[in-house]
Amino acid sequence: MEGEILQATSALVRSLEHGDASSAARVYADDARVLAPEGELIRGRADIEAYWRAGIALGLSTVAFERQLMAAVAGKFIEIGRYAVAAKVARNGRIVDRGTYLALHAQVADGSWHRAVDVFDAD
Q1: Alpha carbon of 40 to those of 19, 31, 34, 43, 51: distances in Å?
Q2: pLDDT of the residue at 38
Q3: Which H or E run includes 21?
Q4: Distance of CA 22 to the CA centre of its chain
Q5: pLDDT of residue 42
């Protein structure tokens, strides 16, 4: 299970770094929730895809997750760690958003593991 979750996180990072919001959204459960750093609650896979698409359009270029804890809780897995998201800006500039994240991974009907909840808390 943990290996599948780590592979899904790697797929999320690769998808975002390649500008593919559709693939990034597929690591989320259909009814997933994302609490963005600016406090916006995004509901459902389609809106999560739109959220990541907007980030890519703004220049999102790299994403990193540094897991500090992974633990089983009531048949799900909780992951806590640090994140860094970089975006390219005009004239070779770069902005990096760093903070703490919490992800809740849940097993869906087909037996695969997906992100059910993501919370991003910017520094």
Answers
A1: 22, 16, 8, 10, 10
A2: 83
A3: helix 21-25
A4: 13
A5: 97
Pairing mode of beta strands 60-73, 41-43: unpaired
CB 118 within 8 A of CB 99: no
Written as six digits, the tokens of 29 are 């459960």
- For the chain, list residues with pLDDT below 50: none
- How many angstroms separate the CA atoms of 76 and 23, rounded? 23
Amino acid 108 reads V
Helix (H) or strand (E) holding 6: helix 2-17
What residue type is 10 in one-letter code?
A: S
Q: What is the CA radius of gyration of the chain?
A: 14
Quote the pLDDT of residue 100.
Answer: 97
**3-state SS, residue 93:** strand
DSSP string for 32-72: EEEE-TTS-EEESHHHHHHHHHHHHHTTEEEEEEEEEEEEE
